[in-house]
Amino acid sequence: IFKFLGAISVDLGQDRIKPYLPTILAPLYRELNSNYADQDPTLKNLSQEIIELLKKLVGLEAFSLAFSSVQKQANQKRAMRKKQRALQTVANPDIAARRKLKRHKNKAETRKRKIESLRPMYKAKRHRSHTLKDLAMVE
User: Fold this and answer.
1) What is the pLDDT of residues 5-56, one digit of tens each?
2) Of the N and C termini of the chain, which has fewer Cβ atoms inside 10 Å?
């Protein structure tokens, strides 16, 4: 898709690409700013190359305006999601408590896996089942 976006950009030319610039930049920006552990470095390099191509194609001023609008939009979405999560914690404490229990359980499992990888002789005790019953609230 990134190659397609780059090809379309070059094909449309400088004047006809400007209205579509924020739409093209959104996935490229998302790929550049993602910090997933299993992220593909070739995608990051490709998105960087296409951004450089767009910068040369439309000029630095038009590019920076579009890029800053995409960046602002992404930050607003992130803030909105954070606010929604905080509101949900207050509005539905039982759901928040379940999510917290699940997060702590996953953290403990990760810790056990890490210890096992560092010390192969050590075997951590693990829960037998991973059902909804394990996530239930304990009174």
Assistant:
1) 999 999 998 889 999 999 999 999 999 888 776 778 888 899 999 999 999 9
2) C
Q: Write the DSSP assignment of 29-43 as a string of letters.
A: HHHHH---TT--HHH
CA 85 – CA 49 distance, rounded (Å): 35
Contacts of 98 by beta carbon, 8 Å cutoff, 6+ apart:
135, 137
Q: What gap in Å lies between CA 45 and CA 50, rounded to an integer?
A: 9
Query: What's the start-to-end Cα distance of the chain, in Å?
Result: 51
Domain residue spans in the chain?
Answer: 1-118
Q: Is the pTM of this model over 0.90?
A: no
- pLDDT tens per residue across span 98-108: 999 999 999 99
The CA distance from 29 to 67, in Å, is 8
Tell me the C-alpha to C-alpha distance, in Å, between residue 59 and each of 54, 65, 73, 137: 8, 10, 21, 57
